[in-house]
Amino acid sequence: MRLLIFLAPLCLLAACNAGRSAADGAGQFGRGLGAAATAPLDDLNLRREVIPIVLLQAEGNPYDRRNLNQCSTIGAEVARLDQALGPDTDAAPHGDGSYLSERAADAAAQAALAAVRDATTDFIPGRSWVRRLTGAEQHSRHVQRAIQAGRVRRAYLKGLGINANCAPPASPAWFRPRGRSQR
To answer: What band does 64 get if pLDDT is binned at 50, 70 and 90?
Structure first.
């Protein structure tokens, strides 16, 4: 009986969390539905993904050393790249503290949005040719080149940070400077 008294509130809390997670997933689906439904605009090159300036700069010269004479400036440049690219592979994964029901709701919303996006883009006959003729394919390749250049630049900057004995984020997360930073 005592066990039942203890478990009943826990079950109610779990049910409340699952319901809230489902509502959050439905909200996420609703917020992404517009972008998924208008995905053909990307194929027709009527809507373009904006490339962040930091990635365009990296594409222009990923090994530029101007104004990188201090650990703080190297770290600031790495932070700008992290903002555009997301966390680097050396960053520890952050436990977001989410419940399994929240992660399941997120996955379900993403799968539903992918299905809507696929359904809206599948109606375009000769989609690959349309993307080539409108320039959407070329822009997509440009976005990928800029992302790759940003990754190269971030790795280069972290190498400079190690060489200058800088603490993270101006160097990889695993690096520990010897004594004091040089700059």
So the answer is: very high
For the entire predicted model, the pTM comes to 0.62
Identify the residue whose tokens are 């990635």: 55
- The Cα–Cα gap between 103 and 117 comes to 21
Token pair listed for 14: 């779990």
Helix axes 2-37, 100-122, angle to 10 degrees: 20
The model's confidence at residue 132, banded by pLDDT at 50, 70 and 90, is confident
**Contacts by 42-46, CB closer than 8 A, 24 or more apart:** 42/136, 43/121, 43/124, 43/127, 43/130, 43/131, 43/134, 43/136, 44/130, 44/134, 44/136, 45/131, 45/134, 45/135, 45/136, 45/139
Report how many helices (DSSP H) and strands (DSSP E) the chain contains, helices first: 7, 0
